[in-house]
Inverse folding.
C-alpha cells in the first residue's frame, strides 16, 4: 500500500507551478487516521445532541438532561481536538508548499541540483544567482547599446544605471 492520502483541490492559473497540480499528496499517518475517526464520531455526537434536545424538551427526565450535558462537554472536547487537527493539517500544507518552492528553486539555481542542503543555503545561493543575473543583464544591455551606437542606430536602452549597492 502507498501510505499516501490524495486530497483533490482547485488550482487557479495564477498560482505557481508547484501549486498547480491535481491533488495534494499527504503521507498517511496515525494522526490523520485519528483526525478522520474523530470527525466521524463528532458527526455521530451531533446527531445524539439533536436527539437529546428533542427528548428533553418533551419530558422533565433528569437522566436525559444529564446525558445531554455530558454529551455537550464531550462535544466541546472534540471541537478542541478537531481545531488542533485542522491547525496541524493546515500547518503541514504550508510546510509542504514551502518545501515544494524550495525544491523548485534548487532545480533552477545552478549548483543546487541533486544536493541535499538546508533551506537557508538554498535562499542565499538563490539571492547570489539573482544578483549575478542582474549584473549579467546590465552588461549585456550595455553591450547592445554599444553595438547599436557603432551601427548608427538610435539606442533602445538610454543611460543604464546600476544601483549603488551592486557591483559590476
Amino acid at each position: 500500500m502507498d501510505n499516501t492520502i490524495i486530497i483533490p483541490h482547485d488550482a487557479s492559473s495564477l498560482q505557481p507551478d508547484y501549486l498547480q497540480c491535481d491533488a495534494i499528496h499527504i503521507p498517511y499517518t496515525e494522526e490523520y487516521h485519528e483526525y478522520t475517526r474523530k470527525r466521524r464520531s463528532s458527526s455521530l455526537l451531533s446527531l445524539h445532541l439533536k436527539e437529546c434536545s428533542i427528548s428533553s424538551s418533551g419530558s422533565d427526565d433528569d437522566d436525559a438532561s444529564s446525558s445531554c450535558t455530558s454529551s455537550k462537554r464531550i462535544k466541546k472536547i472534540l471541537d478542541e481536538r478537531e481545531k488542533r487537527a485542522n491547525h496541524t493539517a493546515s500547518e503541514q500544507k504550508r510546510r509542504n508548499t514551502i518545501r515544494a518552492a524550495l525544491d523548485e528553486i534548487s532545480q533552477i539555481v545552478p549548483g543546487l541540483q541533486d544536493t541535499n542542503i538546508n533551506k537557508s543555503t538554498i535562499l542565499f545561493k538563490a539571492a547570489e544567482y539573482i544578483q549575478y543575473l542582474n549584473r549579467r543583464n546590465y552588461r549585456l544591455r550595455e553591450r547592445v547599446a554599444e553595438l547599436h551606437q557603432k551601427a548608427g542606430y538610435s539606442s533602445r536602452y538610454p543611460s543604464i544605471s546600476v544601483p549603488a549597492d551592486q557591483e559590476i
